[in-house]
Design a protein that fits this description.
mainly alpha, about 0% strand, elongated
Length: about 350
């Protein structure tokens, strides 16, 4: 019997696929993900394609936001935070999240090019599918630092996790327990206070004297003077803890106050920029909710939501201050002191 060798031929099935633009981005799968329910029912409504694309766009960007949130948390969990190296990485990631949120808010302008009457032509095919079931948006809220007890319930005795499947519900539950942007920012601010304030008695005395001078300045109208009574509440831990809706610990609050009071000093410029970015993120998530509420109202009026929720009425209840995580940064303006009264001794020392 003869043996024949046909050369060194490689089975074509074993050849590695060539990396191309299409294969790298997975476009063969991505561009086939727009399956119109109306088309499946034999009544294709072209605008449903836009509806799907916009919402898929939301979810892709949400995924990147969660990636960057995790990066910020990892950096702030470092044992020692270096101003130049660590804060620059944080500002890059938070700055990108801000740009992304601005983009996704603009997505609503695109979907609003679809007349409400056209939406009704395919809404029935969506059945129980609803944006209420967006796991990633819930993860963004939880990772930002929204507390479960703060959430509004669409229906008594039910929370948002009841609208998710079992696996998604567990993921959402885990995101309620992990580190958040709020928790790591709070720890960072506490460390700032401990690093720069070596003598607490001197710190509180200096702040109290500056406020006293401002409050007693009779060269200006009374309503322009400092509110010493309100300021005194933040100078002692026991009175600070009586402030309504307080979340930051006493030391973390004073870390943020110190940074805010001396934001123009070289040692605090990066830190203040970081605080401002946290505020911008909080503002834009709130703006996303507000724009979403308006869009839903435009499309549905006060009809029941697509997934069976109360729709506009429920969403409107989520668009309020208790859903904002970094409110204390916004409230900080009430405790700032004009430069004219800060020209004396500084209440901190540079390590």
């Amino acid at each position: 019997m003869c043996n024949f060798t046909f050369g060194n031929f490689t089975d074509m099935a074993d050849e590695p696929k060539k990396l191309t633009y299409e294969t790298y981005l997975g476009l063969d799968k991505l561009l086939k993900c727009q399956e119109l329910e109306s088309e499946k029912e034999g009544n294709r409504v072209a605008e449903e394609h836009l509806f799907i694309i916009v919402h898929q766009g939301f979810e892709i960007w949400f995924k990147q936001i969660l990636e960057d949130f995790k990066g910020v948390i990892d950096i702030l969990n470092e044992p020692k935070i270096e101003e130049r190296t660590h804060l620059s990485g944080i500002t890059t990631k938070l700055g990108r999240c801000i740009l992304i949120l601005k983009v996704v808010i603009q997505h609503f302008e695109i979907i609003e090019t679809m007349p409400p009457a056209v939406f009704l032509n395919f809404r029935k095919y969506l059945k129980s599918g609803s944006g209420f079931q967006s796991l990633q948006f819930r993860q963004i809220e939880n990772t930002l630092g929204l507390r479960p007890e703060t959430r509004e319930q669409d229906q008594p005795g039910k929370d948002y996790k009841d609208a998710l499947n079992t696996e998604q519900s567990e993921i959402a539950k885990d995101s309620e327990k992990g580190d958040t942007l709020f928790s790591v920012a709070e720890t960072w601010l506490k460390n700032v206070f401990g690093t720069y304030v070596r003598d607490r008695v001197q710190y509180f005395n200096v702040l109290s004297e500056m406020m006293k001078t401002w409050a007693e300045d009779t060269t200006m109208e009374e309503h322009h003077r400092g509110n010493k009574e309100a300021f005194d509440k933040i100078l002692k831990e026991d009175t600070y803890e009586t402030i309504p809706d307080r979340r930051l610990t006493f030391e973390a609050f004073h870390g943020a106050l110190l940074i805010s009071l001396y934001q123009d000093e070289p040692e605090f410029q990066s830190a203040y920029h970081t605080i401002k970015l946290f505020m911008d993120i909080d503002s834009l998530v709130s703006k996303w909710r507000h724009t979403h509420v308006l869009m839903v109202h435009r499309m549905l009026g006060k009809k029941t939501g697509t997934g069976g929720s109360s729709g506009y009425d429920y969403l409107k209840r989520t668009n309020q201050d208790k859903y904002r995580v970094f409110m204390e940064f916004f409230n900080m303006g009430a405790y700032l002191i004009p430069e004219d009264y800060k020209r004396g001794e500084k209440p901190y020392s540079v390590p």
